[in-house]
Specification:
The complex is a heterodimer of chains A (248) and B (318).
Chain A lengths: L1 E5 L2 E3 L7 E2 L4 E2 L6 E3 L1 H17 L2 E7 L5 H10 L3 E5 L6 H15 L3 E5 L10 H9 L3 E11 L2 E8 L2 E8 L2 E5 L14 H9 L2 E4 L8 E7 L8 E2 L5 H11 L4
Parallel strand pairs in A: 1-6, 1-8, 6-7, 7-13, 8-12, 9-12
Antiparallel strand pairs in A: 2-5, 3-4, 9-10, 10-11
Helix pairs in contact in A: 2-5, 3-4
Chain B lengths: L2 E5 L1 E2 L2 E2 L2 H16 L3 E6 L14 E5 L8 H14 L4 E4 L3 H14 L2 E6 L5 E2 L2 E7 L4 E7 L4 E5 L14 E5 L9 E7 L11 E5 L10 H10 L2 E4 L1 H5 L20 E5 L5 H7 L4 E6 L6 H4 L2 E4 L2 H18 L1
Parallel strand pairs in B: 1-4, 1-6, 4-5, 5-12, 6-11, 7-11, 14-15, 14-16, 16-17, 17-18
Antiparallel strand pairs in B: 2-3, 8-9, 9-10
Helix pairs in contact in B: 2-3, 4-8
Classes of the chains: A alpha/beta (248), B alpha/beta (318).
């Protein structure tokens, strides 16, 4: 079984979010980048497939060499081969088109991407990829089993869960639940050493066109200080929520 | 040119978010000087969209009983081309985020989710949306013949505007599904985190699952959904379905009440889109107070039952 895990490279959650060039670009200065958490759950699930059922695990990223350390980390965690499609990721649509061309050229049985990246939170790439390839797609996955050429996956929906079954190849939007946080694979020294020998290919893009463009960033207005209400004056809280905030 | 919205349904009834999506679509159509149409699947009350300025609804009466993203996206694509729709409006629910990327790929459309307002420019179409998990906004230009906007939950609100609404019941040919449902579990008769106006959320400060009646009683009075922090779901006190935060469900509700939650940055990232945040915590240094609008420093075991009782009395009079 050939498994492809799509990797986003995102600022760590604790990073300060600032913008430069008249608020048109994200300030990468001093920002620590990590594997997108939703992708990391998918990567560990893929490695379990390799350990238990046998599979080749490839990882792919669309973007610049800035993400190379992140892809090396994926190899150290246990992926067999890394690819970077060398083009800036302008929008979800363009990334999905690059990935679709890559998947078509390399034939994968299972493609796992994160439910969303934690920088743009678009939830766009996995669905668009499945739409372009015209293959089944299951988002927000909290469980995945592969039996022969069939995938059974459970998705979280608003107020419940739905278990769905589809024929491979399939695209999965992964998240916590696919594996738990305590299950996440951490690179050990042996993995890091091995990663240096593993194949890492930089490939030329399709030059897919983007349909959207981010033109300006804005930070939320600074928050007013919290209004503290004494614990023995709950009527005051109810009054504030009713008359001032207008929410009850 | 026309504006077309996807009105979501559940058990043959329009979902609550259909009103907000319809309000947004009607306002967008007005600014574009065109009309707004809706497509609904198995909606017994499709004409209700007339309350929010929608004059025509195509109601597909032979749709699969359960939401099926691929089948629905194929059907919607036919209506997009038949009505020359240029602007498509959907919600940011789990189902809409399932469907919209498929729809965008099929129609070579531009798509942005999590919009917080009407487009601030029509030419080129520019939409403000949340980014960096609610730590920033980004203005995005959409430059395709068909542009899909996903409206963030509770970001636009509902605007009542009564018009005559014509419902056309249709039975188009459907594409075959590429997924089979094995099972579904859904809490019925309970507000969901995605759909509720109010979410009451509990953290480690509640000391154990046996104390969750405090959260549930308060939620009942407010007709609120219940949620929890990550440690609570990790320890198995509550199901992962209730976990809100960066790796859990996003919350963008009108009122978020956090009880015994210290406010780790990952938790705040997931709930920051909520309009009003109330924090009840016995630790005055809890970081959540910095992100809150109202706070009570006190023992949840005393404050919460008192708040529940007082709210009961308040609701009874109002």
């Amino acid at each position: 079984m050939n498994v492809l895990v799509c990797i986003s490279h995102v600022p760590d959650t604790t990073s300060k979010i600032n913008f430069v060039e008249n608020n048109t670009k994200f300030n990468t200065g001093g920002v620590q980048y990590i594997i997108n958490p939703n992708d990391e759950f998918g990567l560990t699930r893929a490695i379990w497939l390799k350990e238990k059922q046998g599979a080749q695990i490839h990882v792919v990223h669309v973007g610049s060499a800035m993400a190379d350390p992140t892809l090396r980390k994926c190899l150290a965690i246990g992926a067999d081969k890394a690819f970077r499609i060398d083009t800036p990721a302008i929008d979800g649509g363009a990334v999905a088109k690059e990935l679709a061309a890559f998947v078509t050229a390399n034939s994968y049985d299972l493609i796992i991407a994160g439910r969303e990246s934690i920088d743009y939170n678009g939830s766009m790439v996995p669905g668009m990829l499945a739409g372009l390839l015209d293959i089944p797609f299951i988002p927000n996955c909290v469980g995945l089993e592969i039996n022969g050429n069939e995938a059974v996956a459970e998705r979280e929906m608003d107020g419940g869960r739905e278990k769905l079954k589809g024929t491979l190849p399939i695209v999965i939007g992964g998240q916590k639940g696919l594996v738990e946080e305590s299950d996440l694979k951490i690179p050990n020294m042996r993995g890091i050493m091995q990663a240096r020998q593993k194949p890492f290919e930089v490939i030329a893009p399709q030059q897919a066109s983007a349909a959207t463009q981010d033109v300006l960033y804005e930070k939320p207005a600074p928050k007013a200080d919290v209004k503290l209400v004494p614990a023995d004056d709950i009527d005051q809280l109810i009054e504030l929520l009713h008359k001032e905030a207008n929410v009850i | 040119m026309s504006v077309l919205l996807f009105a979501e349904t559940e058990n043959n009834t329009l979902k609550r978010n259909a009103a907000e999506v319809a309000s947004y679509a009607a306002a967008l159509a007005k600014s574009l000087n065109t009309n707004s149409l809706a497509v609904a699947f198995n909606a017994d009350n499709a004409q209700d969209l007339g309350q929010y300025g929608i004059s025509k609804v195509y109601n597909i009466i032979n749709a699969p009983e359960q939401f099926d993203a691929n089948v629905y996206a194929h059907a919607l694509s036919q209506y997009i081309s038949n009505t020359n729709a240029t602007h498509i409006v959907v919600s940011s629910s789990a189902d809409a985020k399932f469907l919209a990327p498929l729809l965008a790929a099929k129609n070579n459309a531009a798509y942005v989710p999590n919009a917080v307002a009407l487009p601030n420019k029509l030419e080129p179409l520019t939409v403000k949306r949340t980014a960096y998990t609610n730590k920033a906004f980004v203005h995005t230009e959409l430059d395709a013949e068909i542009n899909i906007i996903g409206v963030g939950n509770n970001s636009f609100g509902t605007v009542e505007q009564f018009v005559d609404c014509v419902v056309e019941n249709d039975s188009p040919e459907h594409t075959a599904s590429n997924l089979d449902q094995v099972s579904m579990s859904k809490e019925t008769g309970k507000a969901t985190i995605a759909d509720a106006d109010v979410v009451v959320s509990g953290g480690r400060g509640l000391k154990g699952p046996e104390n969750w009646h405090l959260i549930e009683d308060l939620a009942d009075v407010l007709n609120a959904a219940t949620a929890c922090s990550k440690p609570v779901s990790d320890m198995g006190w509550r199901s992962h379905d209730e976990h809100v935060g960066q790796t859990g469900k996003p919350v963008s509700t009108n009122l978020y009440i956090a009880i015994g939650i210290s406010g780790a940055i990952q938790h705040l990232a997931g709930v920051n889109a909520s309009k009003v945040k109330v924090v009840i915590n016995n630790d005055p240094e809890a970081p959540f107070f910095k992100a809150a609008d109202y706070g009570i420093v006190g023992d949840a075991f005393e404050v919460v039952p008192a708040l529940t009782e007082k709210l009961k009395a308040f609701k009874a009079q109002s």
